[in-house]
Amino acid sequence: MPGVIIGDHDNFEASLRKFKKQVEKAGILSELKKRQHYEKPSIQRKKKEAAARKRLLKKMRKMRLL
Questions:
Q1: What per-residue confidence (pLDDT) applies to 22?
Q2: What pLDDT sits at residue 56?
Q3: For each of the chain's 66 residues, which pLDDT tens digit applies?
Q4: Which pLDDT belongs to residue 13?
Q5: CA-CA distance, 12 to 57, in Å (whole number)?
Q6: Are 29 and 23 a contacting pair, CB within 8 Å?
Q7: Which terminal residue of the chain, N or C, has fewer Cβ atoms less than 10 Å from its own Cβ?
Q8: Which of 23, 18, 17 is CA-nearest to residue 2?
């Protein structure tokens, strides 16, 4: 669980940036977006396969340009 301890002389804005960075690194926001609505396992699998296909095509395009 992300958390930032703020001292007496710490800047609030800097502490807020540190906290946001920790939340992003922990993946809390992406997890929240995933849990906004229920998704059937078959839909999850199809999305995962589509993402893998997209990554592969991107990698192939990148290799062709080099």
A1: 94
A2: 96
A3: 888 888 888 899 999 999 999 999 999 998 898 889 999 999 999 999 999 999 999 999 998 887
A4: 92
A5: 44
A6: yes
A7: C
A8: 23
Side chain identity, residue 31:
E
Give the start-to-end residue ranges of the domains of the chain: 1-35, 39-66
Q: How many CB atoms lie within 10 A of CB 12?
A: 8
SS percent in the chain: helix, strand, coil, step 5: 70, 0, 30
Give the CA distances from residue 31 to residues 7, 19, 46, 50, in Å, rounded to whole numbers and listed in that order: 30, 17, 18, 19
